[in-house]
Design a protein that fits this description.
nine-stranded mixed beta sheet, globular, alpha/beta, TIM Barrel, binds zinc ion, 211 residues
Length: 211
């Protein structure tokens, strides 16, 4: 079946996000998502704590490697930051996960090294990137160049941003099946940039809460 999954979502377990775990479920359902990957910065705590029968939760992490950010999907054990990216990919695989290169061309978002070819997939659409169209074009070109599967995610740090970009994954609703399907390329990246109105709201909230 075709599952609609936002493969890049931050929660309040990331220092720079305000989204509660309850909001993840509420907004995912509102956006018609079948599931999300929780990919907090350098921690799996939020991903492990989010237990719900309402959506599929792919546990994950966004690791700050020495060579840029890297997503680990289907990872439930913490993987240390500040390691060489090749070593980090190896650790993700050892933990039973897959390594996805997020926002590979978005120069201001600490993109992962473009010299590495051993990613399992490339995030070609990142809802938080501006200009979205340009970076989507460059991301798709990079993935095609390497012949790797393509994913999409909102990179949301504020609940209303969830689901702006998402991946259609052709798989049964089971985390292992989903990750296997991503690895073999049964994915279609979909969506759009996070709307300006929501970005402005988030910035206002950020100033208020001083995060
Ligand atoms: Zn990132
Ligand atoms: Zn992120």
């Amino acid at each position: 079946m075709d599952l609609k999954i936002d493969l890049h979502v931050h929660t309040c377990y990331s220092r720079d996000s305000v989204t509660t775990l309850k909001e993840v479920v509420t907004y995912s359902k509102r956006r018609g998502l079948d599931g999300v990957a929780i990919t907090d910065h350098n921690t799996v705590k939020g991903a492990l704590r989010l237990k719900t029968p309402d959506i599929i939760v792919v546990p994950g992490i966004e690791i700050s490697t020495l060579n840029g950010h890297l997503l680990g999907l289907n990872v439930t054990t913490p993987i240390p930051a500040k390691l060489d990216i090749k070593e980090t990919i190896h650790r993700i695989h050892e933990a039973g996960g897959i390594a996805v290169a997020p926002h590979p061309s978005v120069f201001y978002k600490s993109p992962p090294s473009r010299q590495i070819k051993s990613y399992d997939a490339i995030e070609v659409m990142n809802g938080a990137s501006i200009p979205f169209q340009v970076f989507t074009y460059l991301g798709k070109r990079f993935a095609a160049h390497l012949g790797l599967p393509q994913t999409a995610g909102s990179d949301s740090h504020y609940a209303p941003e969830i689901g702006a970009a998402y991946t259609i994954v052709e798989a049964d609703p089971d985390v292992d099946e989903i990750v296997a399907a991503i690895k073999k390329g049964a994915t279609i990246p979909m969506g759009e940039a996070i709307p300006w109105k929501i970005r402005v709201e988030r910035t206002a909230l950020k100033l208020k809460r001083k995060i």
